[in-house]
Amino acid sequence: MRAPGSELPIVLADVRYGVPGVTILDGISLTLMSGAPTVLIGPNGSGKTTLIRLAMGLIEPTYGRVTWGGIAHAAPQRRAIVFQRPVMLRRSVAANIEYALASAGIARDEWSARTGELLKLVGLAGLDARPARRLSGGEQQRIALARALARDPEVLFLDEPTASLDPAATKAVEDVVRAVAARGIKVVLATHDLGEARRLAGEIVLLHRGRVIECTPAEQFFADPKTQQARQFVAGDLLL
Question: Among 165, 167, 170, 2, which residue's Cα sits nearest to residue 78?
Answer without folding.
Answer: 2
